[in-house]
Amino acid sequence: MVLAASQRMLARLLVVASAALVVSCGNDAQGPSITVGAGDSVESSVLAEIYAGALARTGTRTAVAARLGGRADYLAALDADRVQVVAEHTGALLAHFDVPAAEQLPKRVAEAVSAALPEGLVISDFADGADLRPRVLLTAQAADRDKVRSVGDLAPRCGELTVGVAVTPGLIPSGGSDRVRGCDFAATVAFPDPAALRKALLDGRVQAGLLSGPPELAPGATGGLAVLSDDDYAVRPENVLPLFRKGLLDQRQIKKLNYVAGELTTDELAVMIRRVRDEGAAPGDIARDWLDQHAL
User: Fold this and answer.
1) Helices marked H in 64-223
2) Cys bridge to 138: 3, 29, 143, 239, which one at CB 3.0-4.6 A?
């Protein structure tokens, strides 16, 4: 009797194991594995982990290919189907694929990007709350003295000013999309980092500054400075969005990426980049925490 009961129990276990194997194989057969590519920047690695994690939560098998190089490198990997998704910025993509394009407003820039993409590549929704375009700076003293609050206020005087330019570490490269419409500066001087740009402004060596990305990514770099508003988008927007191979993702997967776009903000992305860049946190852990916090 004991032997018969044991045999029956073993049979039930074998049935359960066989069913689990069938389910596992079924999940694997739902679609191809998707590799999300990341360039050398911290931002690119964080966004790649977010996109890969979000797609994985639809049941998709995903992987991240890290440190692929600069824009030309990861776009070449996308074109060759070595990766299927990459993170990008709207303004930088437009500058890459359509140099003469004049669009400046966020939605128009995204539409122009979609129209300019080569055959076989598409985009989904851009994150309208995550805009990493450069910021225009003056000293607080000069802004108060001349009553300059916005880039539009500054435009009539740009021809008299030397502008200093600095790149904030960790960002996806702007690709030359950081021109200021209607503001032709007399001269441009490059600085190695945001701190050097701040010092040059306060010392009077340059009269205006152009800092890539939001000030939150360069703590202390805007002390004593005024960050000019730009509601008219004199600086082209750099909204985050996914670029991927056409026909690869189904509607459920695209909808998940659109949910990411709807939740992502500049402030949150800046915090995530700083945690990886300055504290050594793992991009995958940071992405997973963010996805959990937003129930994605």
Assistant:
1) 71-79, 90-97, 106-116, 140-146, 151-154, 194-203
2) 143
Q: What is the pLDDT of residues 56-78, one digit of tens each?
A: 999 999 999 999 999 999 999 99
Q: pLDDT under 70 in the chain at which residues?
A: 1-31, 176-178
State pLDDT tens for residues 178-201.
689 999 999 999 999 999 999 999
pLDDT score of 177? 56
DSSP letter for each residue of 34-79: EEEE--SSHHHHHHHHHHHHHHHTTT--EEEE----SHHHHHHHHH
Q: What is the dihedral of CA 286, 289, 295, 296, to 10 degrees?
A: 30
Rounded Cα distance between 258 and 256, Å, is 5
272: its two tokens: 């995530």
Sign of CA dihedral 15, 16, 22, 25: negative
Please enumerate in sequence order all residues whose Cβ is within 8 A of that of 27, keeping only pairs 6 or more positions apart, or say none: 59
pTM over 0.70: yes
Tokens encoding 125:
């929704």
Of 290, 174, 168, 275, which is closest to residue 217 (Cα–Cα)? 168
Amino acid at 14: L
Query: What is each CA distance from 2 to 5, 10, 15, in whole angstroms?
Result: 5, 12, 20
**All residues at 6 or more sequence positions from 34 whose CB lies less than 8 Å from its CB, including other chains:** 52, 55, 60, 61, 62, 63, 84, 85, 248, 249
The DSSP H or E segment spanning 256 is helix 251-263
* DSSP code of residue 179: -
| Letter string b/e over residues 272-288, b meaning 16 or more CB atoms within 10 A of that residue's CB | bbbbbbeeeeebbebbe
- The pLDDT tens digits of the residues spanning 242-259 come to 999 999 999 999 999 999
